[in-house]
Fold this sequence. Notes:
This protein is an alpha/beta fold and 278 residues long. The chain is 35% helix and 19% strand.
Amino acid sequence: MAQPLPRSPRGFMFDLDGTLILSDRKLGGYTAIPGAAETLAELDARGIPWIAMTNGSAYPAGVQAPKLRAVGLPVRDERLFTPNSVAARAMIERGYERVLVLGTQGVADALAEAGVRCVLPDDPAAHETDAVYVAWHPHCSMPDIHLACERVLDGAAFLTASDVPFFATKDGRSFGYSCAINGAVARVTGREPEPCGKPSALALKLIAEQLGLPEADVGVVGDDAVAEMQMARAEGAIGIAVASGSTSREQWAAQPPERAPHVVIDSVADLLTGGLIG
Length: 278
């Protein structure tokens, strides 16, 4: 049985890659992690709220959630959130008039659906943007990076979907494109990006609001010390680490206090067998 938590979570946020699923490196084929579907179904049966939040920004929820359901996970569209969900809210609240998106068309579409006026690098209006948003951009070119640097040096806000370097896949560890692009822009401009996905306070605020709970009552379940556990620790939530993804039990044991989970389990199936669901 897993070690006891400081308090029982009243709701849960689940990471995707390495926690509920393993995908291939092209983010195409998904495989559900054993026990994930049963755990989510049991939460529903007990009336315990949960959502899924990925740091992946390639697909909007309306595209990705059906893929999750196709492998047996009961993730409705409205229960799946991405960094684009958080970014759109921040951009609108801050009044950015036009956002340069270094990402796929799917990223731009997700922001546009939320009411953000955004452009891709090949749009002439890209030179007149007051914010830059770096997301999933597997075909990023040096002209794209040059343009982003120009805008940031001219005073544009610098946001990103994720600044986490790796994510787990069934083909092994894969690096995050946005993190690599962020590094190039930051090296040139001297400005670090503001993450909109995990581990940002913006992300956990949205998570808690969607669950209808105080942040302290949210169980953050994930496989990444920076993305999930650092967020949980910094914002006072409950960190539940799994060893089914990018971080082994030995690596979890070596984390500093600001990234240390409250409990480590082998996989999400242990939420049921380990007595972690109240």
